Amino acid sequence: MILNEMIKNTSEPQTIDTLVESLKKLGLYQGDTVIVHASLSKIGYVIGGIETLFKAILKVVGALGTIIVPTQTMDNSDPKNWQNPAVPESWHDKIRELIPAYDKKTTPTRSMGKFAEYIRNYPGTERSSHPQVSFAAFGFHAKKIVKTHVLTPKFGMQTPLGALYNLDDVKILMIGTDATTNTSLHLAEALSTKYKVKETSGCAMNIDNKRQWVTYEDKAYDSDQFVEIETEFLKKHKVNTITLGLAETKLYQFKKIVDFAVGYLDK
After folding, report:
1. Where does the record locate the signal sequence feature (predicted)?
2. Which of 87, 160, 172, 260 gets the most CB atoms within 10 Å of its CB?
3. What pTM, to 2 d.p., does this model score?
4. DSSP character for 128?
5. CB atoms < 10 A from the CB of 31, how many?
6. CA 139, CA 116: separation in Å to the nearest integer?
């Protein structure tokens, strides 16, 4: 059904050449490090689909560029907090006991979209070790970016987001997705001294080659507030925007919007 709608709404299909041209026009360059959030269906019909989109981005950033995607696995969590659907309380202990431990090589993403899952499986991709909010990276800086990912704070400076903050000229590419998907803003929540809401999380992970259920305390990260942050940011800063096929597409400077968000949350 989605494919039928994409074909119906597309006057001319996108190709690798049209995508490359648009991405360059947007401001993506050779050597860029870019976090990608993409909804392929919003673009319209792309000849070759996800593979073509990936190859187009890769062609633009080149051999010295790096592509990063969030590869979260939030189904590896305490079942008492599950909604849509919830599970019976009588199942909770059994789920905590038996849910598979996170494995960065094999654990699939959850609700991250087909593009993120494509990158996760792409040969040569590196992935971070967090059992719930991992990142995958492909390209020049991939190993450096995913090398460290502490359990808590899971979006702080000792994570792929922190590694990206310490690199120059990192960009965020949003293709047909809204502000709530902008995972980079979780770094601002972690860095904010005023945002202090806490929660306890649980997950299954391997420690010394043994599966264990662990709990940890961290900030209660809330992507719903990202819409308001983006709205205020766009009032004061110019962001490169184009229509990629049918998808509104924005290119943010990573440090600029993260620093703005920290200041916004601190107020």
Report:
1. none
2. 160
3. 0.94
4. -
5. 15
6. 15
